[in-house]
Amino acid sequence: MNSEKLANYAPSHFKFSPDDSYLTYLHTASHQMARQLWVVDIREGSSLQPRQVLAPPSNGGDTEENLSLDEKLRRERQRAYAVGITTYAWGVGEKILVPLQGSLYVQDGIEGPLRRVYDAHGGSPGGGTGEVKYHDARAEADGGMEE
Hints:
It contains two helices and eleven strands; from the N terminus they run H-E-E-E-E-H-E-E-E-E-E-E-E. By secondary structure, it is mostly beta strands. It is globular.
């Protein structure tokens, strides 16, 4: 195993929740390449025990088998070997935003269910078919959302 792949096992993408109660980060369990979102409750008196926040969505998240050729080539150019959740952002109102396979998922706080709010493959957010308009949603540095 080369050092670039080994670096993907280390926790990364550390972020504080908007209210500074939680520290979230991406990490892989059991030295697998599939990253998951983990959280540590950093409030005074908490146990500081990490726990996984998000489970992969029903389609399995980003895996080598379901990435498009363009995405595989982009990831190869960036030397990004990890799969699963590779990026996320905290949004307004304790929402966690997670892009997977071009779709956008949102979780309301660390206890809420993961739900798809934008489907890049043409289906409606609820999973049916229908027209989905393109929205460019970004989390701003101050925790707000820009559309």
